[in-house]
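3.2 Worked example (two chains)
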Amino acid sequence: MSSELLAPLDLAFWHLESAGHPMHLGALARFDPAPGDPAGLLPLLAERAAAIPRLRTRVRDVLLPVGGARWSVDKSFDVHRHVHHLRLPEDGDFAAEATRLAGELMERPLERGLPPWEMYLLTGAPGGPFAVLVKLHHALADGMRAVAIGAGIFDEIADARTGTSTAHRAAPRRPRPVPPRSWLPGPWQVSGVADAVRGRAEDLGRALGVGASVLGASVVRAGRHDPHGTPALAADSSGTRRLATAELDLEEVRRVRRVSGGTANDVLLAVVAGALRHWLLERGDPLPAADPCALVPVSRRRPGSPPDCGNKFSAYLLDLPLGDPDPLSRLAAVRRGMDRNKAAGPSRGPGAVAVLADQLPPLAHRFGTPLAGGAARMLFDLLVTNVPLPRSTLSLAGSPLRALYPMAPLARGQALALAMSPYGGRVHTGLVADGRALPDLDRLAHALHTELAELVKATDRSPGS
């Protein structure tokens, strides 16, 4: 593939990273037992990863634009520097051991001089289950593109890629006719300059609008900041990572949605709010005077858009109603908050920091992004994202995929991020936390099950159910 400049938002994630704040996404995929020793799958995994063009590119600085960077093919690419095999104790709980190890591996930043990704084949006893951990730098892709890239290791996607004929490739674009040059500006030249100026003015207007919204939200949150509430979510970063997983029944989520209205994502956000409430009360912490605010990413990819990589998303800010003891009332509050966000749109609300970043020049990202990294704490307390997966059944070397837990990076000043992916009738949830701030992350994962059960029970008792 030819080299290409990093888009402004990709460049922001590249410069946002530090040793204590790695900016990679992740996913832990668990598979049914493979015949024989699953360690033999390592060559297949390496072969399929090497066949994905984007995974052979690395970031290189450029002279122009000043402060910019470019994706370029790594001419010395060696897939074996990226794909590794780790064997877990054969007599332990494989799922628990794989989850623990994945959390530790998520602590380690990716090597910046190489294509920014890694894969780990995690195996236990011969004939037993196995897992694959994928790490992709956030500059490489957002959640949806990460799924599209990482899915290349599965049988179904790899077979389809191998069987694709040249007939399916996009037809080459015909070169546009270039008007004859003249020492006087013709109408086409004046029009082009006018269009460029108009487009830049519109970009500036959007940036100012988003900037005002973000600033306003920061002022409001600073005014209602509760220094005594939810200390675990605002703890200083230790650089450690802990992973916990949960699987929710997708049919139960849909059952609640059919009665309550709204979307399945509204239900899941309400489940997160209730789980946080249960978790805080169980550990003896006071409920915060001000509800914690979640950043909820929203894709800006249009259906049928070209399969480009990089980041194309905005976000909503949503107060999670922890203070309300009624699960149905919490759900109603979440629905109202999300309806307000959708009415305002993802490109102008206070959560649209990604849109603002997309309007800034490369030099601003190179020097300003590291300094502005701590602003995340001013805007939100945790991240909650929903990452869609292919609906078809997936497998690796014939072994069915049983679970895929997505993992989101922690922004500076954040201690918790939840990512959810529906697949196979379950909502697979990956909870990534600062290991020192949330040592009891497993209890929060369990609280997700507790809250969904209470929400289903309350829904069944409600009129009209």
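3.2.1 Second chain
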Amino acid sequence: MRASPIQPTVDLLADGEQHGFLKLPYSRDDSAWGAVMIPITVIRRGEGPTVLLTGGNHGDEYEGPIALSKLASTLKAGDVTGCVIVVPVMNFPAFQAGTRTSPIDAGNLNRSFPGKPEGTVTEKIADYFQRHLLPLADYVLDIHAGGRTLDFVPFAAIHVLPDASQQARCEAAMRAFGAPYSMRMLELDNVGLFDTAVEDAGKVFVSTELGGGGSATAASVAIAERGVYGFLAHAGVLDRDTFANGEVNRTTTLLDMPDGTCYTTSEHSGLLEMCRDLGEIVQGGDVLARVYDTTRTGAPAVEYRARRGGLLAARHFPGLVQIGDTVAVVADIVERNIPVAI
């Protein structure tokens, strides 16, 4: 396979604190010899685990970019044992546009792995993470939120994996992140995900969904920041006692998405009325939402009912819904008030 066109302006293996870019040449109308410059920080001291922290996999999700930008500007080499690689914004073109996918090639980075070094801009970015950053990492945390079209209760997430030992390691890291909720998440389609690439490489992987609506709140950013430090301490890169910061009394609630009945999908387009709020307990058959035909009056709304009981963990965000959109996700409550243990 040909070499990646992306060149780092930092030495990924050198000790110290380095702030630079992943430079991807990109010739375009307004810059014949231009480049996409993806910010990266590498903080390394001595021998130890390597943790890869990423945000901005989708360009309209902001908790990751905020929390990781703050970490990159404050974490020092003397704080770590091993290495922390911080990429606050993976899909930088999408982030600049405030969109889920890239305005350059319409690429969804989180559906583009393993990528192609000779492919589109998005595929080239995926290829660099797959072949050059992922092999360095022992632990990977990819911070997501719902973007402009979804909203979630704040949770860290793992997937059910064929390797029980690997899943146990991922679950321990998820609990150390310490979000209010921890989810065993069911993906309807995991092809091309960064998640899948990391898991297939045998690494410890945790993702998140920390809110939504195309913005961030003080509460959701605080969850991300605490979670990053908990994840790093769990990995052994940071001293556990130093960075516990009195958080020993926090708890998380474990959720599970066992099958496709967790998802409620709209079969109509129109005006959305959510009838239950995030975090509420619902029973199978409860009305979750109604969709109104916006082209006429006098037509009854279509009701969408829960296909199972549980906790309303996700919902469609905009007031208008399209056919095929996910309206709601209901998850099982497995265990409440689990102590957060780094």
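3.3 Remarks
Residues 101 and 213 are 16 Å apart (CA to CA).
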